[in-house]
Amino acid sequence: MSKPVQFALELPEDLARLHLPPMHQSRLQSLLDQQDRGQVLTDAERTEAEELVEMTELFSLLRMRSERLVASAA
Fold first, then answer.
1. Is residue 73 classed exposed, middle or buried when 0-12, 13-18 and 19+ CB atoms within 10 A define those classes?
2. How far apart, in Å, are the Cα atoms of 64 and each of 18, 26, 71, 72?
3. Given its phi and psi angles, is residue 38 left (phi above 0), alpha (psi -120 to 50 degrees) or beta?
4. pTM to 2 decimals?
5. Nearest 5 degrees, angle CA 9-CA 10-CA 11?
6. Which of 49, 42, 58 is nearest to 9 (CA)?
């Protein structure tokens, strides 16, 4: 049985600026474009794309939760 884990995390005030670095964003876009053109990604490329998407989703989740905390504190 799994148990939820909670921990405290200090979030920077400029969390809205938390995004993939331009080099990584460009690489992700390149991989997605390649896939959209019907080109098959290698296993390594697919893994890389999945990891970059997961990181982007994590950043988005952190931004949304931070905004909710700020709004509830006001």
1. exposed
2. 11, 23, 11, 12
3. left
4. 0.73
5. 110
6. 58
- Helix (H) or strand (E) holding 15, with range, is none
Q: Which two tokens stand for residue 66?
A: 């931070």
> Which tokens go with 28?
């992700």
pLDDT at 3: 67
Angle between helices 22-36 and 43-73 (to 10 degrees): 120
Query: Which residue's structure tokens are 């331009």?
Result: 22
The predicted pLDDT at position 72 comes to 81
pLDDT tens track, the chain, 74 positions: 556 656 565 656 667 777 888 999 999 999 999 999 999 999 999 999 999 999 999 889 888 887 887 778 77
